Amino acid sequence: MSALRRFAPPPVKRGGIAFGGVSDEHAPATRVVTAGRAQQGTSLAPALWASSTWETDGLDDTRKRAVALRPDSFYSRYANPTVRAFEEAIAELEGAEESMAFASGMGAIASTVLALCSAGDHVVLQRQIYAGTQAFIQGPCARLGIEHSLVDGTRPGAFAEAVRPGTTMLVIAESPSNPRLDLVDLEDLGSITGPFTMVDATFATPIGVRPIEYGVDLVVHSATKGIGGHNDSTLGVVSGERELLDAIWAYSVLHGATASPYDALNALRGLRTLAVRQQHQAATTLALAAALADHPGVAAVHHPSLPDHPQHDLAARQLQCPPTVFALDLLGGVDAARAMLDGLRLVRVATSLGGPETLVCHSATSTHVSLPVDEQLAIGITPGLMRISVGLEDGDDILADLRRAIPAN
Ligand SMILES: *Cc1c(COP(=O)(O)O)cnc(C)c1O
Questions:
Q1: Chain segment 315-350, per-residue pLDDT in tens
Q2: What is the pTM of this model?
Q3: Cα 163 to ligand 1 centre (Å)
Q4: Which atom of ligand 1 is closest in space to residue 177's alpha carbon?
Q5: Residue 178 CA: which ligand 1 atom is closest?
Q6: Pocket test for ligand 1, best of 104, 106, 184 (most atoms within 8 A of CB)
Q7: What domains sit in the chain, N to C, each tagged with a CATH number?
Q8: Which of 78, 168, 240, 267 could bridge to 218 as Cys pair (CB 3.0-4.6 Å)?
Q9: In b/e form, how buried is each residue of 128-148, taking b as 16+ CB within 10 angstroms?
Q10: Beta carbons within 8 Å of 294's beta carbon, 6+ residues apart
Q11: Does the C-beta of 102 come closer than 6 Å to ligand 1?
């Protein structure tokens, strides 16, 4: 167990590519502290603008604001200064021209899909994906006449092969994917021409990967997870080129999955410590994954930064800080999963990730319960698969709790 204490946090690599026209002289750990401060004047803390509406200066001024794109000081569904501060911070970290925040990660995903796709359009969807995204594409989108194809995102060329020229409007990927952290080669995804490409990088955060640098058009995060980082904010965000974001805004102002300024404020506070939290949590994650691989009740451990993972080389190239989640395959299947959840004393049973508390969930009966069993198995969700989000507690304490709770089989 003392090995865990010696495990040093992995350094966050310095990005080499100039981003968004902003100076690239500082490392990501600095930028999370400095980004998105234009709205707060000389105040060190961001201001909370709870206002839903602003007074205007008569007819002409009102008209000007009512027809503007993302107008300042008009009406909060159109734009809000606290939410703008969060959006500007994320755009800077992503190296994107613009960002837009939403009421949740699903709000961001659903609004973006409906902003860009119409009846008769086709979407290419990664098979290894957040179950809510899949349910949205297969349910409401199918009902509205938007077709889709499912592809294995780990197979090189799979996305491009599924594109129907002239008909495919959007390619949706997720990397690292939920729950087993499969990676998509973003160079491959970014080289697709024709449809817009979008990657859900929630599991990486902007500290782990900046997909825009690979030529991907849109990057989306559930900021409810690592970006907010404290389980006190429900928020989503999409980033990309200004023209594309303006089009998404024009749809979204009617759809109304509008981000709350309170959640944006909490997420901005979370963002300031993102780099240090993620480095620390990633170090604990890798140490736990290595230590639990030898447990007699464990069939396999999944994390792309482990040396024996099939995508280890891609992880080393593409991820600037490892993700803070790993998955465990229990030998004893669903009975072992139940026993493990019942036996935990420190680690909590809950379905989220990226917060201070270590959380575990049984994927087949929680996050992916909406998928038929054969579809679960096709993406590696076995009856014994447990997703663990590693928190900020002492690593030895987490290891002891997991070791004790996992049945030896
Ligand atoms: C949680 C999550 C979402 C959905 O985000 P919400 O904020 O819960 O709406 C989407 N994608 C991934 C990868 C997630 O983990």
A1: 999 999 999 999 999 999 999 999 999 999 999 999
A2: 0.94
A3: 25
A4: 13
A5: 13
A6: 106
A7: 28-271 (3.40.640.10), 274-405 (3.90.1150.10)
A8: 240
A9: bbbbbbbebbeeebeeeebbb
A10: none
A11: no
